Amino acid sequence: MEIVDSLWLNVHLATLCADEGAFIKHGASGAYGEIHDGAIAVKGGKIAWLGAQADLPNTFHAKKSHDGKGAWLTPGLIDCHTHLVYAGNRSDEFEARLNGASYEDIARKGGGILSTVRATRAASEDALLEASLPRLNDLMREGLTTLEIKSGYGLDLETERRILRVARRIGKEFPIRVKTTFLGAHAVPPEYAGRADDYIDLLCQQILPALADEGLVDAVDAFCENIGFSLAQTERIFNAAHRLGLPVKLHAEQLSDQNGAALTAAFNGLSADHLEYLSEQGIAAMAANQTVAVLLPGAYYFLRETKLPPIAALRAAGIPIAIATDCNPGTSPLTSILLSMNMACTMFRLTPQEALQGVTRNAARALGIANETGTLAIGMAADFALWNISRPADLAYKIGGQQALRTVFGGEIR
Fold this sequence. Notes:
Layout (H helix, E strand, L loop, with lengths): L1 E13 L5 H6 L8 E10 L2 E7 L7 E8 L4 E4 L1 E3 L11 H8 L4 H6 L4 H9 L3 H16 L3 E7 L6 H17 L3 E9 L10 H18 L5 E4 L8 H13 L5 E4 L7 H7 L4 E4 L5 H10 L2 E4 L1 H6 L8 H6 L4 E3 L13 H12 L3 H7 L2 H6 L17 E4 L6 H4 L8 E4 L2 E2 L1
Parallel strand pairs: 1-4, 1-5, 6-7, 7-8, 8-9, 10-11, 11-12, 12-13
Antiparallel strand pairs: 1-2, 2-3, 5-14, 14-15, 15-16
Helix pairs in contact: 5-6, 7-8, 9-10, 13-14
C-alpha cells in the first residue's frame, strides 16, 4: 500500500503537457492533453500519479480525498511579467490623455514613470506590501500559483532593495511562488538626467551586485527602447548579470525595433517581452535559442497600439508564446490573467489552446521553472486550479467575473 497525502477524484484534467509521450502514458489526448473522468494523487507537494480514474491503483491510500464533482482541473496559472509592487496612482494621467494632453505634456509636469518612482521612494516596506495586496488578491482568485515581480520603480539601491524585499515577503507570507526580476534599467532617475551611461555604471558596479549578493534577484531585465536604454547599454547590463550567474530577459521591440530580442537570445535569455516591432532577424535568433516570446495584450490595449506582434511568424518559427498581465500603474493596470487570455485571443488572434499554454507551460519556461510547474505530470509541483467550466476554452472565452473554484499550491488548498 502507498500512502499519499491527497486524492482528487471525479475531475477532468487538462494536463497541458508538452511531451506527447506523456500524453500517451497517462491516457491524455487532444489539444489540451485532456484526461476525462480523471484523478490525481499528491504526495509531498508533488504529483504522485494522474490518469483516468478507472486506472487508479487500488494500492493507494489517501489521507484526504476530494470530490471534484466533474470540474476541470488545470495547472495553476502563471503570470510571468508583472510590476506588482509600487506605490501611487496614475489615473490622473489616464484622464489627462483622454482629455487631449500628450505624453510630452504629462512628462513636463513631472508625470509618467518618474511620478511612480517618487511615490515608491516615499513608501515604507510595509506600505508597499499593503498597496500590493489588492493586486495580488485579484490575481490569486483566478487560480494563479506563480507570479513574477519586477523592481524598477526605485532606481536607487535603497528603493530597489525595498521593492524586491516586498516581493520576497509575498512569496514567503502567501501561498504563491514568486520569482523576482531586477529592472533597475527601467528609466533614468532624475538625479542622473542626461547621464544614462553613468547610471548604467552604478547599476552594473554597485546596485545589481549588492542585491544579488543579498539573494533578492532571480533574473535581470531592462527596457531597451528609443525612450529607454540603448542596445549597447542593455548589453552592459546583460554582461553584469552574466558575471553574477543570473539569467536575463528584456522589454524588447515594444515601440520600435532596437534588435533587443536578438541580443537577449544571444545571452540565452529566458524571454523577450512585448515584441510588437519584432523583426525577422529577431525571430530567427529567438527560434535558435528557444527564447520565449511573452505577449502583453494589456499594454497593447491600454496604449491603443495598432501594430500587432508577428504572431504568424512566431508560430511558424516554433517559438513558445507566453501571455502575462504586465500589471503596472502606467500602461497596463491589469490584475486579471484570464482577461489577458481573452485579450490575446481577440486582439492577437491566439487560439484558446495557445492562450492557456501561454499562462501555464510557456509562462513557466519564461521564468526558467518549466521542470517544476506549468504542466500536470508525475513529479511536477502539485499546483493546480479547479474550474466550473464545460471545456478548457471557456477560460479564454468569458470576459470577466470568472474565478477558480479551488486553487491548490504545493498540494495544499489555499
